[in-house]
Design a protein that fits this description.
Elements lengths: L3 H61 L5 E3 L10 E2 L2 E2 L5 E6 L5 E5 L13 E7 L2 E9 L5 E7 L1 H20 L1 H15 L1 H11 L16 H51 L3 H31 L9 E4 H17 L4 E6 L3 E4 L1 H18 L5 E9 L2 E8 L30 H12 L2 E6 L6 E8 L2
Parallel strand pairs: 1-5, 10-12
Antiparallel strand pairs: 2-3, 4-5, 4-8, 6-7, 7-8, 9-11, 12-13, 13-15, 14-15
Helix pairs in contact: 1-2, 1-3, 5-6, 6-9, 7-8, 8-9
Amino acid sequence: MTSVRRLLVLALVGTLSAGIAVAAGFSYKAGLQEANELFDAKLAHSARVLMSLVDEPLADEQHRTPGGPMVISVWHGNGRDLVSAGGHAYETKLAFQVRDAGGQLLLRSESGPVQALAALAPGYADVTLAGSPWRTFTLRAPSGLWYQASEQSEIREEMAGDIAFGTLVPLFLSLPIMAFMIWLAVCWASRGLLRISEQIEARAPDRLAPIELGRVPKEIQGLAKAVNGLLARVEAGLARERRFTADAAHELRTPVAAVKIHADNLRNAVNDAERLESQQRLDAGVRRMERAIAQLLALSRVEPGAAPQAREPVDLAQIVAHHAGDARTLAEERDIEVRVQAQRAMVAGDSAALDGLVRNLLDNAVRYTPAAGQVSVRLASDAGQVHLVVEDSGPGIAPEARERVFERFQRELGTGVEGSGLGLSIVAQVLASHGGRIALDASPALGGLRASVTLPAA
């Protein structure tokens, strides 16, 4: 399992190590540049010192006794020590030459080669002698003699490496200590996350109270708030499921008992008349129970906090036409006239939920309309809104009861119509999730109830 603390420590130590390595490169480059400038200055200085010491005697000597070149001995160091009583190890990599105007060698150091250190031209030059790179400074004296001071280029690289090594070795040696300090800092900074983890781990499965934030860093507060939001949604979902279970038990208790009684009566019927009556009552009880279950399931799907509903363009006229046909079939048994005026009206929403809205409005209108009555359905759209109006010639709803009929299992007494009291609850939930509204009042044309629904047009 991946540890956040381990990842942070490895990332920080790796970044620190990479930074030290990059610093080593820059330090070496800067040291090499400084060494070049320093040694170039020393080369020029050495050539001028040599000229000031030997130019006049050497010029006189050249005129008196011309001959072979003179050789100057320099100290040869050995071993790893650079400095000793006899000189410096770098002297073995230094060379001097003096030549006349014609290029004849007059004087040289013992450490230098016999061949010319560089062309006789004032200034600096980089040459390769005996397979090694040399840096040479050439100076011409007023007497016409040429003075050359030269050194092997590896001296500069060694010096730059020594500077970089001396600077960065302490940093690398202190890296374990820095890694330990980083580990302590990460552990201290992540204590809030560990505390929240311990709270969650120690919780009972049925404890969904929010996590106490306390002194939690801001970066972790977002995670804690997200977990609290999840706990709230889980609690709401469980409450919804418990409510659905209670509603189902409450609503299905009576129809199940009735079905059981009618089944017993059917089994114990002594003649065809009793058997037919019990069969009819049994069928009615099954239909009532089927309707109640369907409405409970529909209500659970449109409740707040349920699964997000799909949004798509829906032609409400097609849904009205479909359910109007079903309503006419039911209305024909009681000689009820169903009139429909619907034009194309597009709504953005969940087709199943909108289907349930229209079905419940039409079903309620037909069920509560007495025989030989009328039901009117009008659908139109204007100014970015869709209007659905369902009227009937039934008993209507008293003004003081029009608000509470949207509550669950709320049925007005005295209507003589069996129902679950869920139809208008489903309508209200669908409208709430689609940004719509409904108004109930008395129908001026038919005398019963008028339900006016308004929805945003797609």
